[in-house]
Write a structure and sequence with these properties.
The structure is a single chain. The protein is an all-alpha fold and 263 residues long. It has one domain. Helices cover 54% and strands 0% of the residues. It is built from twelve helices and no strands. The two termini are 35 Å apart.
């Protein structure tokens, strides 16, 4: 059984192991088989279902915006999953997150189970929302401190109303901390023209005093949580590792993409 976090404390999470190879995940199989497996306590199955629901709900949202576009047809698997099990999205994602699966913890912390941000705010009245509000900040921080670079991206945008999703305004605003995560993201990337452009844009947003403190803080985090490592995100994405490229490359992902056109 998964270890349950108490009082908003995140579950134990294994630090990123840079020597670990990509995880060999089984083919997802039928929706019914996945549901049975998740209901029997299988965190990987719960993660797979939650990840598919995120993708399917996004596809459904895009189709509704442009219903006459033949490229927006919803795959039959998505139709089945959303119609029969859409109301279990938060349940399954929380199950996998509380089992300590890094990908699921990050997806849960980001509020993915509440659907496309802005499409509906009914989730504010959902039974699991208060649990999520209590757990999300600590879970996001735990994934960062375990050395998973993708979590830094989510933290970078968390306080941005247009991009932060349900996390927006949940974390206390702190100019130095917020800029430090921008700086940390830059430190985690290998140098490239794109990174240089991002560096110019991100640093132009901060006052000089804030920027100096933020760079010092980011340098400490880079060593303490990430061992000073850098990653070529462009190359990893080019290999087809979309979404969670470092997690996928080092055996920390818990879902596989279902074939089909992207939303």
């Amino acid at each position: 059984m998964p270890t349950q976090a108490r009082d908003g404390q995140p579950p134990p999470i294994a630090p990123l192991d840079p020597a670990k190879q990509a995880r060999s995940l089984p083919s997802p199989g039928s929706v019914d088989d996945l549901v049975a497996s998740a209901d029997a306590g299988n965190a990987i199955a719960a993660c797979q279902l939650a990840a598919e629901l995120t993708d399917c709900r996004t596809r459904q949202f895009m189709r509704n915006l442009d219903p006459d576009n033949p490229e927006r047809v919803l795959p039959a698997r998505c139709e089945e999953l959303v119609a029969r099990h859409g109301d279990r999205h938060l349940e399954w994602l929380r199950q996998a997150a509380h089992a300590g699966e890094p990908e699921a913890m990050l997806r849960y912390a980001a509020g993915e189970a509440f659907g496309v941000h802005g499409a509906s705010f009914d989730y504010l009245r959902s039974p699991g929302f208060e649990n999520w509000r209590r757990e999300a900040p600590g879970m996001l921080q735990a994934v960062i401190e375990a050395g998973y670079p993708e979590a830094v991206i989510y933290r970078m945008i968390a306080n941005q109303p247009d991009f932060g999703g349900p996390l927006a305004n949940l974390l206390p605003a702190d100019p130095v901390q917020d800029q430090a995560y921008n700086e940390l993201f830059l430190l985690l990337n290998v140098d490239s023209p794109l990174v240089e452009l991002m560096r110019t844009n991100l640093r132009s947003q901060a006052a000089e005093a804030v920027g100096a403190q933020a760079r010092q803080q980011a340098a400490r985090w880079h060593q303490d949580h990430f061992g000073g490592r850098t990653y070529d995100f462009e190359a990893l994405n080019a290999e087809g590792r979309r979404g969670f490229p470092v997690m996928q490359a080092h055996g920390a992902s818990c879902s596989v993409a279902i074939e089909g056109p992207t939303p």
